[in-house]
Design a protein that fits this description.
About 10% of the residues lie in helices and about 30% in strands. The chain is mainly β and about 250 residues long. The protein has one domain (about 5-245): Jelly Rolls, CATH 2.60.120.200. The chain has a 6-stranded antiparallel beta sheet. The protein has a 5-stranded antiparallel beta sheet with strand order 11-10-9-1-13. It has a two-stranded antiparallel ribbon with strand order 2-3. Strand 4 (about 55-60) and strand 5 (about 70-75) form a beta hairpin. The radius of gyration is 18 Å and the shape is globular. Bound molecules: 2-acetamido-2-deoxy-beta-D-glucopyranose (7 copies). One 2-acetamido-2-deoxy-beta-D-glucopyranose binds near residues 92 and 96. Keywords: Signal.
Length: about 250
């Protein structure tokens, strides 16, 4: 594997595949999201996809290819929103997922691009504006049979039950989510299943160009803001549900 393609700075791994229909919350509180330099050449900045050599992400991946992928947060382009994506990797098994056309009724998000499964949180909820505000909390709620919802809270707009460290935070009091993926006829609930959780920063992941590698090799000072400052990552499960089965060190 090309080290530039996938460099895991941190790796948290656990199985979250216990009882079907279990409702789970995954909460990541950060004071700082990694930002990086942008490519520039004689024409100016490269814009759009992969315009930075860094690609920070908080995501879930299936334990084999058929189990799908859910990306709670990816920053692979300069827009300061979180890219939130459901991947249906095995369409022969589960069919294709589609979003309701009227998604803005259910989520304060935009996008719906790339096969109808990516949603963007509002501008200002990631990268520099997130860091300037002193950080925030991303929360993903996965109710296996019903939906995945996500909120991207930026300080000072963090719900009180999260701030207070409540053992029973209540998503129904948090207002409109910033992404909403309903399961049912539009998307088979088992499209995402048997997931493990990953927090990582990939360097020069698509395209892996020499220009990109050179920036990483030769300009370390350009990456002085490329770090996560994490307060905590929490997983909430139903009482007696064994959802956190192990934490493994960095890989
Ligand atoms: C390139 O992007 C950076 C970061 O957004 C910005 O500060 C800089 O002015 C841009 N440079 C050009 C030539 O557009
Ligand atoms: C500079 O980047 C732009 C945008 O990606 C690209 O179209 C152009 O070919 C690049 N120019 C050079 C000289 O590499
Ligand atoms: C899912 O959508 C893709 C792209 O439109 C298409 O190529 C594929 O055949 C579809 N798969 C199923 C099982 O419908
Ligand atoms: C939104 O779209 C869904 C699926 O197309 C439909 O069932 C529902 O009635 C729509 N809701 C509203 C308020 O338009
Ligand atoms: C959506 O988010 C933007 C930016 O945070 C905010 O200004 C707007 O009021 C929100 N809209 C709704 C319907 O919550
Ligand atoms: C977010 O910012 C990008 C880049 O400035 C812009 O193209 C896009 O329209 C904005 N999206 C929203 C929902 O305001
Ligand atoms: C990184 O470098 C920039 C430009 O020199 C500087 O403004 C910024 O404060 C530095 N950040 C850190 C965390 O050292």
């Amino acid at each position: 594997m090309d080290v530039f393609k996938l460099l895991f700075l941190e790796l948290f791994l656990f199985s979250a595949n216990a009882a079907p229909l279990a409702e789970r919350l995954f909460m990541l509180s950060m004071d700082h999201i990694p930002t990086g330099p942008y490519y520039s050449n004689v024409t100016g900045n490269v814009t759009g996809w992969h315009s930075s050599p860094i690609w920070p992400a908080w995501w879930m991946n299936g334990d084999d290819r058929s189990n799908g992928e859910f990306d709670m947060f990816e920053a692979y382009e300069p827009n300061n929103h979180a890219s939130i994506t459901l991947h249906d990797w095995d369409q022969s098994l589960y069919g294709n997922c589609t979003m309701p056309d009227n998604i803005t009724q259910y989520a304060n998000s935009s996008g719906n691009a790339f096969g109808g499964i990516t949603q963007f949180s509002p501008n200002g909820t990631s990268l520099e504006p997130f860091n300037k505000a002193g950080g925030g909390v991303y929360v993903m709620q996965w109710d296996h049979g019903k939906f995945i919802r996500e909120w991207t809270f930026v300080k000072p707009n963090i719900p009180a039950d999260i701030l207070n460290g409540s053992p029973n935070p209540n998503p129904d009091t948090w207002g409109m989510p910033n992404a909403y993926f309903p399961f049912g006829k539009n998307c088979h609930p088992d499209t995402v299943n048997h997931m493990y959780l990953i927090l990582n920063i990939a360097f020069c992941n698509g395209p892996v160009t020499e220009e990109c590698k050179d920036i990483v090799r030769m300009q370390p000072e350009a990456f002085n803001e490329t770090y996560f400052l994490i307060n905590y990552m929490k997983a909430f499960c139903r009482p007696n549900e064994k959802c956190l089965t192990g934490i493994y060190g960095s890989g």
